[in-house]
Amino acid sequence: MTPTYRERLAVPLRWWVQGTMLVASLWLAVVVAVPGVVAWVVAGLSVALMAALLLAYGNAVISVADGELRAGRARIGLEHVGAVEPLTPEAARLAAGRDADARAFLLLRPYRKRAVRVHLTDPADPTPYWLLSTRRPDALAAALTAAAASPRGAGGPGPTTAQGEQHAG
Questions:
Q1: What is the pLDDT of residues 116-146, one digit of tens each?
Q2: What residues does 62 pair with on adjacent strands?
Q3: Is the pTM of this model over 0.85?
Q4: Which alpha helices (H) appear in the chain, and where do they start and end?
Q5: CA 2, CA 74: separation in Å to the nearest integer?
Q6: Distance from C-alpha of 135 to C-alpha of 114, rounded to nearest angstrom
């Protein structure tokens, strides 16, 4: 089944520019102290490290598909999704800070100012809600609400493993 919603929380272009400027500054500091070949090797390794870190940090995906909400490596069946609130930047800041619940699951990125709070209805789960950074909170909230209201999301078969076995939900 194709996802009803999918978003990758990639880092913004300005982070790449700032990282490149940092590496250039490092190269400039090193090139005056050591032979040029060593400076270029240090710069090359620094670029590789920067790229690996930025790609890994921005690799988190939020998706709604196959009866599940996935946020990064976490996933939950849509039958456990309750109320969904798209949050303004100010409401997201408060929800992640002053009004936060320590038991909540957070997938936040500082370069995404808006978020969605997904309340959970599973009585066995101590997590009261998920707080997820997103570019499009209204679209994510609409996709979750529609998918949770569908027959599969509203108490149909639970999520399955990669081998097709039924999860206890």
A1: 999 999 988 899 999 999 999 999 999 999 8
A2: 7, 71
A3: no
A4: 13-31, 36-57, 89-96, 137-149
A5: 19
A6: 7
